[in-house]
Amino acid sequence: METQSQLPSTQLQLKGTTFLRTCINGINALSGVGILSIPFALSQGGWLSLILLSLVAAVCWYTGLLLKRCMDANPSVRTYPDIGWLAFGFKGKIMVSVFVYMELYLVAVEFLILEGDNLQKLFPSSGFKVGSVSVEGKQMYMVLAAVFILPTTWLKSLGLLAYVSFGGVLASVVLVLCVAWVGAVDGVGFNQRNELLKLQGLPTTLSLFLFCYCGHAVFPMLSNSMNNKTQFPKVLMVCFVTSTMSYGSMAILGYLMYGDNIKSQVTLNLPTDKTSTKVAIYTTLINPITKYAAIINPIAIAIEEASRLFATRSMAILMRTLLLFTTLILALSIPFFAYVMAFTGAFLSVTNGILIPCLCYLKINKSARKFGWELVVIVGILVMGFSVGILGTCSSIKEIVKRL
């Protein structure tokens, strides 16, 4: 997501965007930190789970179309929470907002875990002590990253931090090319023999796939920004096909190179003495630092609007500092990148990307509730969404608890 780089763009008011620019924006919305864990996702489910990657992409593309149809029902709809309001009134808007902000919050947590993992990979360290408290390697780097990021969270007007679409797309391309280079040129090779199907790991696989494709909260903004809004379905098609090619390439490369030994982030497997590895890791590290503030900003703004307590500048800074501090505490407490991502995908991405679009569409469009192929498809997607959500959430919580 990235919901991870996905949602900050809701803060921008783009007008008259071209088809190409909207495609770039949309691809960026779907190109987040999920690409690092896509080989791990494939290793959990086996080669045949690539079919599920395509299925998840198709379902999320279709639910994106449903959001567009919801917007067409009322021209005043501008944001994802507005669709919740149109369907279910004020309670619907609050519900959608809560799930969107929860997803953003966990993406911010993921950023800090990612920083800790990759900095420790580059610079193995024994840590330091503060009084009687010992802070070891990975945790030390999380703390240092949080300190470095902190001043950026105080900015209300994010400017370039808020939305660097081309940079996000380029980062994904660079990562795939670097991994391919390590395999083809730096001697790792593509020699792993791997299993076709692992039923036990499928809930984790599906949860991680769903995390990668949930950019739905940004779709209304992208549609409204276009010169020609009727072209938005074509934009969605381009975005999902391109993202699927990128994710699929990374999944296949990583799994062929490292097999079942693949780690939660493919960068953690790469040999550190290679230039290609350093490029991949530095590319990975830069994005969270520049995007953390943009990810957390919508939550901060919502808190500020809901309470007069944070009306003054000093109180707003304090609140944003506390927000970062809570994400750091959570990252330090559950520093398991893949399984936090799996939980986010199963619980929040399923809700935001599958359940809410279907339920809102059925509520807004009465004709869709008449028996026919459309209703059958939507009910089927809802059943699948609820099933994956329950299984994936339980599986990810179980894995997190096991590692605590």
UniProtKB/TrEMBL annotation:
Xref: InterPro entries: AA_transpt_TM (IPR013057)
Q: Which GO terms describe its cellular component?
A: vacuolar membrane
Q: Where is the Amino acid transporter transmembrane domain?
A: 16-397
Q: How does it sit in the bilayer?
A: Multi-pass membrane protein
Molecular function GO terms recorded: L-amino acid transmembrane transporter activity
Which PANTHER family does this one have?
AMINO ACID TRANSPORTER, AMINO ACID TRANSPORTER TRANSMEMBRANE DOMAIN-CONTAINING PROTEIN
Q: What is this protein called?
A: Amino acid transporter AVT1J-like isoform X1
Q: Which organism is it from?
A: Cucurbita moschata
